[in-house]
Amino acid sequence: MTSHDKNTHVPPGFERLKRGGPYMANLGDLYCKRENGTTIIAMRITEQHTNMRGIAHGGMLTSLADSALGLGLTMHCEGRHSFVTVNLSTDFVDAARPGDWVEAHVDIQKLGGRVAFANCFLQVGAKRILRASGVFAVMNALTPEQLAAGY
């Protein structure tokens, strides 16, 4: 695999996800895969995601984790609800670099009537780079217009 292939290759089983809203759309394409009951949201790290040290910016990785948690919850309930972040805790374990394929492995802890809890790990291959835990307010489902706009 050439350097260019590494920067554009999408691993098997992942499909382009046209969700995440305008903010995430500006960060780049998101991909999704469901595997053994787990939702995996992923994206390729590019130069635009890096800080002055040449590694993926922590805020960018936090945005990916936050979006992946919300999307994972929405997929878990098959779109019957949407979710707004109430609290998000993150721990940075390692770095991601341009060309890395970063996967957010989402684990739903509890989905109640008013509040939902979920965790995820961001991974590059088998290497965990970030741990996130979120609490989300359970909201009404998105409207067809919002869904059409990519929310």
UniProtKB/TrEMBL annotation:
Enzyme class: hydrolase
Enzyme Commission designation: 3.1.2.-
Gene3D superfamilies according to UniProt: Hotdog Thioesterase (3.10.129.10)
Protein name: PaaI family thioesterase
Residue intervals of the Thioesterase domain: 54-120
Assigned keywords, A-Z: Hydrolase
Single Gene Ontology MF annotation: hydrolase activity
NCBIfam families reported in the protein's UniProt record: unchar_dom_1
Family, similarity comment: Belongs to the thioesterase PaaI family.
Record flagged with keyword Hydrolase: yes
